[in-house]
Amino acid sequence: MQFxxxxxxxxxxxxxxxxxxxxxxxxxxxxVIAMVVNVFGLGSWLNYGVDxxxxxxxxxxxxxxxxxxxxxxxxxxxEAPRITRFGADNEFTIRxxxxxxxxxxxxxxxxxxxxxxxxxxxxxxxxxTEFVGxxxxxxxxxRAAFAILFSFxxxxxxxxxxxxxxxxxxxxxxxxxxxxxTLGFLAIFRVEISLPTVxxxxxxxxxxxxxxxxxxxxxxxxxxxxxxxxxxxxTLINRSINEVLPRTVIxxxxxxxxxxxxxxxxxxxxxxxxxxxxxGVVIGTYSSIWVASPALLEIQKRWDKKEKKPSREERxxxxxxxx
Length: 323
Prior knowledge:
66% of the residues lie in helices and 10% in strands. By secondary structure, the protein is α+β, with helices and mostly antiparallel strands. α6 packs antiparallel against α10 and α8 packs antiparallel against α9. The protein starts with 16 loop residues before the first helix and ends with a helix.
């Protein structure tokens, strides 16, 4: 049973594709500007966490009522390392860039001493201390980028075999769009980039491709029907999107409902991961309709022109025919 809004749906999605281009372009542009600003403010394009930059992470559990401001003041005020709330209201993480692993324990000891010397800080416990070397951080950045690029390549190969090369190219364009928009949001809001965040980005790729393949599969079915190849491409693609719209909306809606529950009840441990996934579901649903499908249409137009273009031999024979 479908929702009444989807009964005999005939939304003209492709007619508004140029507006979608402006929306996507504006978000990507703002993201690029935010990345440039971050280079001067943070020293990097994105807000990389200890997993990628290297350093020491000290996780403390303080008495109830302790605030970030009090901890920051105890550790040097404006010159204090980055402090964020973690999990419960009285748990905090302190991130300090440390060049050598041997200095990690010493830094943790200095943090403990500074907090113990502050009259504003009551009893606390150091829950854990972690160290990530800068070499490992750089390697993780490279592997994360490689994983994303490798997924693009596999996507192009898979869709080229399952459908046609033009379908695969359109899907890759939409996926690149999703990654750029997601990175733009991460840069604008300075969300910390950690290994779970990278896992969320890779999950976004899978979700976006799944939704895009559903739309493309219906387009292919309609193309292979009698008279489908002669039908106006805009009309055919619009009809295909409308036919799978109930599935798209219901799937995205139920996924978002679960992710919202995780965001509210999951705590700070998975908060950034969940936020990135929520962004990905919204962006992936949007791109399958207003990015992947228009990209396929534009590729199809150029594909048809190429197929209709006469060969050199045909042009020579045409010239040789006497008038």
